[in-house]
Amino acid sequence: MAENTSDPVTEFGQQPGPDFDFLSDRLGLAVQRLTDAVVQTKLDQAITPVKTAHEALTTREIEREVGEEMRIFEERHPDWKEHEAAMLELGDKVRPAGMAAHEYLAHLYAAVTRDRTVTSTATATRERDTRESNARESEPASTPPARPTIHEAFLAAKRGERWD
Questions:
Q1: What pLDDT score does 1 carry?
Q2: Looking at residue 154, what is its pLDDT?
Q3: CA angle 158, 163, 164 (to 5 degrees)
Q4: What single string gives the DSSP state of each residue in 56-77?
Q5: CA 75, CA 106: separation in Å to the nearest integer?
Q6: 3-class secondary structure per residue, 131-159
Q7: If we measure between CA atoms, which residue out of 157, 158, 132 comes closest to residue 145?
Q8: Contacts (Cβ under 8 Å, ≥6 apart) of 105
Q9: Across residues 105-129, what is the average pLDDT?
Q10: What is the pTM of this model?
Q11: Residues whose CB falls within 8 Å of the CB of residue 150, separated by 6 or more in sequence, listed in order
Q12: What DSSP state is assigned to residue 78?
């Protein structure tokens, strides 16, 4: 299969014959520009609907994926809307590098709710220790607890127990 390497303007200049050489260069360029413009217009008309359909399909797919990610995130963190403003503010400062969307959202959520999580964990620990201590308060321990709290040691001392 031979490759066409000749210049269309040169070929056009050779077709009218030697009597019209003075027209061939200018007329050839004008015809080439006109042809290019017509071809570009026709291509745009043919490609635009395909491009629009592709963009719409891509947008729908992205919206579906993001919707699924958000649904999963909302199941794991139902109160995230309370922290949305802080998460958006932090998200403007921190960009995910090689992280999936759900990981990024989880990190943002953990960062903005850190103080609340620490406080609730400390409160739960304190309540558990108090409950366990109160349960052991009334009865003398035959052996000291494995990790007695200060409160337990104080109550043992009040009862006259000594853990050596």
A1: 46
A2: 85
A3: 140
A4: HHHHHHHHHHHHHHHHHHHHH-
A5: 12
A6: HHHHHHHCCCCCCCCCCCCHHHHHHHHHH
A7: 132
A8: 69, 73, 80, 87
A9: 77
A10: 0.40
A11: none
A12: T
Torsion, Cα of 109, 115, 117, 120 (10° steps): -150
Domain boundaries, the chain: 26-76, 115-159
The single residue listed with the structure tokens 């403003």 is 85
Looking up tokens 């007329």 gives 27
- The amino acid at residue 164 is D
Determine the Cα–Cα distance for residues 101 and 72; give it in Å rounded to an integer. Answer: 11
Nearest to 11 by CA among 26, 24, 20: 24
Query: Each residue of 50-81: pLDDT tens digit?
Result: 999 999 999 999 899 888 888 888 888 888 88
Count CB atoms within 10 A of the CB of residue 84.
13
Structure tokens at 80: 């995230």
Amino acid identity of residue 139, one-letter, is E
Q: Which of 95, 96, 86, 88 has the alpha carbon at shortest distance from 116?
A: 86
